[in-house]
Every structure is written in structure tokens, then in C-alpha cells.
Amino acid sequence: MQQPPESLKSFANRLAKAAISDDGNQTIRLLRLTNLMGSPSDAAHSSTSPDDVGHQPKSSANAAPLPANRVGIWERKEENGQPYFVRSKDMLKEWNYWANIGRIDAKGKKKRVVFIGESVARGYLYDPQFNCAMALEKILHTQMGIDEVEIVDLARTNLGFEVRELAIAALQLEPDFVVIFSGNNWRCDFPPGALETANLDAAVREKGAAGAKQIAECLLIDSVKRVVKDVASLYDSKEVPLLWIIPEFNLGDWRDPFTNAPHLPGDANREWLSCCQGAQEALETGDLIKAAELATRMVELDHGVSVAEFYILAECSRKSGDIDATRRYLELARDSVIWDSSKSAAPRTYSVAQQTLREEIAKHKSQILDMPKLFKAYLQGVLPDRRLFLDYCHMTTEGIQVTMAAVASHILQSLKHVDVSWTELVKQAAAPSNEVEAEAAFLAAVHSAHWWQAYDVIHYFCARAIQFSRHIVDVMTNYIDLQTRQTPMLMCRSAELISGSGSPLLQHYLLRYNNQQLDKVLLDAIVNSLGEVGINARHQLDQIRLEEHSVLSRETNLLEYYYCSAGYQPQEVNWVLPKRDAILPPDANHYYKAYWRESNFAFVAEAGCPICLQLSCRLPNPATASKGTIVLQVNGISVGELAIGPEWEAWNITIPGNTMQNDLNEIKIQWPIPDFPGPRGFDLTLAGLSERNKAELYPVFGEIHTLTASDGREAQLVAPALELELSAVGAS
User: Fold this and answer.
1) Is the pLDDT of residue 254 over 60?
2) Is 181 in contact with 144 (CB distance < 8 Å)?
């Protein structure tokens, strides 16, 4: 993007002040932002997890072009003067991201359709058993004949802006028609380049997170324009028909978790919290007018950079019967996270990317398949939901069939000059077996649960899996065992049984990318779904949990990922995510940070048996924080209050047995409203960009260094119930 000199003034002034100050570290950070001292390698902090586990690696529209003799993982060879492409052994680690095709032969007499895309096109959760290319091929074979047309599947899981290079390289395959289905992984994560970072610095200091959102949108627009211009112009010159698919999002069901607002000026953070609580209470009591008024005020306070207010407004509109307003607010909620690189956001196509695609493609000879319009027509105005989507953007069989029918309609018009409506082609698309449908539905339940989705969505996919095929029952019962054991996953007998089923879907998606965790919501959904068909798995789950995780047998660290993940608070658990899924650098946090007024934890105990909690915590901002009070609740019962300040302090707390229940127990810590730093909170954020760290963008309510639960029977004999024994541990 263009860099007007005026935008550097604020940044230059800060650099000058830092240069004459005693803070040499700040000067170094600012110099690094300009790249005058070089920049640290991105490799240490860039994610490498594919979007099929939810996290996106950095991808750039400026990615290095592929070699002239390569298309994706396939390298060019010659045989009897004829070119062909085979998978490169040098790219072996990437083979599983692509179609399982060893060789792409030279173009023959058949019309060749090249299908380029990301994990949505790959058929995530169905592939390799079923995918978009298979559905499309079946339609085209029915319409044109098996000997008349072929599909070359170049869809790649986790394809980002690299689609530009892939589309250009694909011309080596001499296609007669090319489809590009991409955009869900298009996001310009911070930190960007040096000049953009200076722009970001100025924008954030002037407008806060709203400034960062504006910069992110501008960067994304520029990147999309470049991709379309470079690809479409080349295809125009080669006179190769090109169809762009504009992706849609699961507006009806997918919900990003609520988060607090980022740093806001003045007393806006306090007012935002009050409005959020009031709006939710009004919504629950049916006072839609009050809920909408308070949510609208939240938008005014944070300028639309949080999902909470838009979800509240969407629910008010839904209950009022205004589907157009509901759609608009859900799209705003989807788009509101574009600026936030401090936490992982499910892949999606943002409105600015969709609109830029529409506008830029229209300048060329390329064709457009607008999925938002297609699905709206197919569903007769109803919001796209679990009927068409397995998760945020990956499609069900029905979604795949509808989309590929529309693609086939475009291809038939271009290659055969016949007009066949997509509505006539839907039933001709291929479909997977019931066994594959069952496995994909169960995988969707697991995936949704690990992306913090609601119980009803997770239960829906569990029940759907059983309806498709009862063979999934054994998979579910083994999964219950797998997630509940302390034994490492791949050493569990249940993992061996799942693997022994021979299902490539379960081996690839479930065993490869699953993390063992307490999984309260998911396992409850599985058990209840099994119970609905007469299978009692509750006893199995409860027994294994008590045997493996009861605090009566060993001390339990509630800050470990296994237990911390049960709090359903994705921001808080980021610091202990398994290494593969981590979105923060390893040294970003050394302890738990609470980004909301309440922190939730879970542990396993037995009814009637007291426990001992060890808690070490403090309020944030040691230089400014004053004393406050935290409230502890166990299973919804208040068990005490603790005076807390900005220095680390520790307590041993005996919780009486009459508050305990068999199996899972819940602890809730309610924090006092902090001294919000306002825009000053972004200072460390902007400085951290120079180190290529993930940004700290939200106010912190409290910090926990230690939280363990253990057998409290001996402690109860020594100290009265609920007695809080205080011992200071000193400041860190």
C-alpha cells in the first residue's frame, strides 16, 4: 500500500524521543520496525499447522513463484517427447495436503478441467473418500461422457495467497477450463512489512483497534487485487476460460467465542462491559429493544471490533423475524476479527475480500460463481447453516453437490455451449457412502468442539453420525476412552482400535490432529447421543475419569492444557496450547492471564470428599493496580472471598466435601474490574511487533501462577472448613 510521508511523523517522533532516553530496548525495537537493523526470523513464531486443525500459517501474496517446471508438488518430466508431471520426492512432506495423484499425464483428446482450491475444495473431513472434484467429475461425465472430459484436482489444504503462483503454473497442464475456489485462508496477519507497521503504529495510536482493523482490510484488499489482476490478466491473454468461486461462511450456526473489547479510551472499557452484561440479561428476558440499544452502544464504544455486540443484534433481529438484518449482523460479526492476530480465528472469507473479488473479476473475461448468492437462492433466503456446512466454511455433501452443480453449469456452457441450470445437475453429483458420512459427521462434532462451539451443534453432528451408520458407535466409545486416559494418545489401546478400523478419515483427521483434553461438552454430546439409541456410555466415562483424574489419587494442575481447555475460554488457554497448535511464541506468557471477569476451571473429584486448592495470583499492572477482591465459587456455591493486590500472593484453601460432586466439578474465579490502561495498553503491543511477537491487545483482569487441586481430607482435620490460610510468595 502507498506510504504517505505524514503517516511516519508520529512514529519518527517516538523514535527520536526513545533515542535520547535511557530506554535502549525501546529504541532497538523501533529501529527494528523500520528494518534498519534487520528483523528477526519469522520462522520461530509462524504457525505451520494446516487450516484443517484450525490454525493458519502466514501466507503472502508476495510468495516466491513456483519453478517453471513444477505445478504444486508435481514436477515436469518428459517421455517420448511428451511432457508429464510426477510428485516430487523433495515435496514429500506436503503430499498429504494434495490429491493422492502420483502422475498427471500430458493433455490428450479429453477436455481438461483444472480444479484449484483450498481445504474447502479439497473436501475437508471427507477427503480422500469424497471431495469436490469427485462430485464435479460425476456431473460432467454424465453430461459429456467419460471419454470427453477429465478433472485435474489441484486443490491443496491450507492454500492461501499462494493460489496466485499455483494458478499461473497450472497453465503448463494445457487446461480447457480452470476453476479457482479460494479465499478462506486470505488474511493479512500482523506484523506486516516495515512500512505497513509504521502505518499500523500511527493508526492504532489515533483510532485504537479500529485503526488496526482498517489497516488489515486495506492490506487484504491490496493482496486480493494483485492475485486477481496477475492471474486473470494472464488467463485473458491465453484465452483460457477461468471461473472464480467466491466462498460463503456458515452464518447460521458458527459462532466465534465472545471476547472482551480491546483497549478503549477513557472509561469506555468499563461502560462496554456494563452494556454487554445488560444486553445479555435483556435478551434473556425478552426485552429486545433494550438489548439492541445496549448492543448498539457497544458498537459505538469499540467501533465494531468485537463479535459480542453483533451476535446480540443478530439475535434481536432473528427473534423479530428480520432475516436480512440477522444476516447483515452475522456478517459484521464474522468480519470483526480481521484485525486481531493475538488469537486464532477460524478460516473465512471476509466481506472486503468477497466484494473485491466481485469488482476485480468483473474487469476481466473471467466468470464468477457467487456462493453467497447461490446458497441464498438454494435455501430460499434462509441463512446458510449446518445443512450446507460441517463447520465454519467446509461443506457437507449437500453443500458440495450444490456448489459443484453450479460449477458444472458454467463449464457446460463454456465447453459445450449448452445452458443447463445447476438445479437440474445437483442430483447427478457423486455422494459418499453412509459410512463415510457418519465418520465425517463425527469428525465435524470433534472439530466444532475443539473450536469452542455450542453443545447443540456438537450434539447434532454426533446424532447425525449415528443415524448414518451404527459402525460409528464403536469409534465413539473408543474416543471416550482415548480422551479420558492419561496414557499418551498413540499408546492407548483405543487409538489402536480406531486405527485398526482401516478408515483413512479417522486415521488422518482424528488420530493425526486430535489433542487429548477433558472435552466436557464433546463427551457429554457423545454420551447423550449414544443414550438416545439405547447405548449407556455414561458409566464408562464416569468410571474412567475417576480412575484416571480424581484429585483424591493425585494432585491436579488445573492450568495444564488438559484441564484448562475445559473452561471453554480460548484466549486464556492459548498460552498452554500444544506446540503444534500454538499461536503464541513459546515465551509469550509464563502464567495464566484472565481476559474476562470470570475464569472457569474443571477437575474430577468425589462427592463428600473435601479438596485442597492451592492458588497463587495477582491483579495486573503492578505499577498502577490497587487492591481488590476475588470471589471463589465451586459448583455454583460461593466458598469465600480473597483480598488481592498487584503482588503475587498464595493461599491454601480447603473446600468442604458437601460442595463436591462425583465426576466433574467446576471452579469459577470472579475478578474485580481492573484499572483499564486505555490506549496505553497498546504501547507494549506495538513494541512487541518489532520482535515479531503476537500482540497483547486486550485488558487483563487477573493473572494466575499456580492453581492445583488435591485431596483435602488431611487438611480438613487440621483447619476448619473454608478457612483460608494466607502465605505471601513475593512479587515476580
Assistant:
1) yes
2) no
Distances (CA, A) of 154 to 71, 369, 730: 9, 19, 58
Between CA 694 and CA 186 the distance in angstroms is 18
Residue 193 CA neighbour count, 13 Å, CB half? 9
| Cα 458 to Cα 553: distance, rounded to the nearest angstrom | 32
Phi, psi angle pair for 677, to nearest 5°: -75, -15
- Residue-wise pLDDT for 520-557, tens only, equals 999 999 999 999 999 999 999 999 999 999 999 999 99
Per-residue pLDDT reduced to its tens digit, 289-339: 999 999 999 999 999 999 999 999 999 999 999 999 999 999 999 999 999
DSSP character for 506? Answer: I
CA distances from residue 135 to 121, 272, 378, 388, 531 in whole angstroms, order as listed: 11, 48, 18, 15, 35
Residue 441 and residue 472: Cα distance in Å, rounded?
A: 10
Q: Is 190 helix (H, G, I), strand (E, B) or coil?
A: coil
Q: What tens digit of pLDDT does each residue of 591-645 get?
A: 899 999 999 999 999 999 999 999 999 998 765 557 899 999 999 999 999 999 9
3-state secondary structure 404-416: HHHHHHHHHHHHC
> Grid coordinates representing 618?
495477582
The residue assigned the cell 459427521 is 441
pLDDT tens digits, 637-674: 999 999 999 999 999 999 999 999 999 999 999 999 98
Nearest CA among 491, 510, 447 for reference residue 55: 447
From 197-211, 324-338, 565-579, the region with the lowest mean pLDDT? 197-211
Residue written as cell 486505555?
A: 678
The Cα angle at residue 373 between residues 395 and 137, in degrees rounded to 5: 50
Alpha carbons within 13 angstroms on the beta-carbon side of residue 311 total 17
Nearest residue to 343 via CA among 694, 596, 687, 684: 694
Which of 7-11, 139-143, 389-393 is predicted least confidently?
7-11
The DSSP call for residue 28 is H
Write down the pLDDT at residue 16.
Answer: 59
Q: Would you say 578 and 518 are in contact if contact means Cβ atoms under 8 Å apart?
A: no
- The rounded distance, in Å, linking the Cα atoms of 233 and 330 is 34
CA atoms of 49 and 158, how far apart (whole Å): 9
- State how far the Cα of 584 lies from the Cα of 98, in Å rounded to an integer: 28
Closest CA to 726 of 656, 638, 644, 634: 644
User: Could you tell me which of 199, 190, 201 has the C-alpha nearest to residue 26?
Assistant: 201
Report pLDDT for 37.
43
The pLDDT score that the predictor gives to residue 653 is 93
- How do beta strands 177-181 and 149-155 pair? unpaired
Q: What are phi and psi of 125, to 5 degrees?
A: 85, -15
Query: What is the C-alpha to C-alpha distance for residues 172 and 514, in angstroms, rounded to an integer?
Result: 38
Whether residue 694 contacts residue 617, with contact meaning beta carbons closer than 8 Å, is answered with no
| Residue whose C-alpha cell is 452494556 | 275
